[in-house]
Amino acid sequence: MSQKYLIETAQIIRQVRKEAPRTIEAAILYTYFNVGRMICETEQLNKRHSARIILNQISSQLTKENGKSYSVENLVLYKQFYLSYSARFSDNDLQKISKVWLESIADMQQYDSVIKSFKKKFRLTWLHYHFLISIESDKARDHLEKQAVQYAWSIDKLRLRFPEFKAEES
Question: How confident is the model at residue 162 (pLDDT cuts 50, 70, 90)?
Answer without folding.
Answer: confident
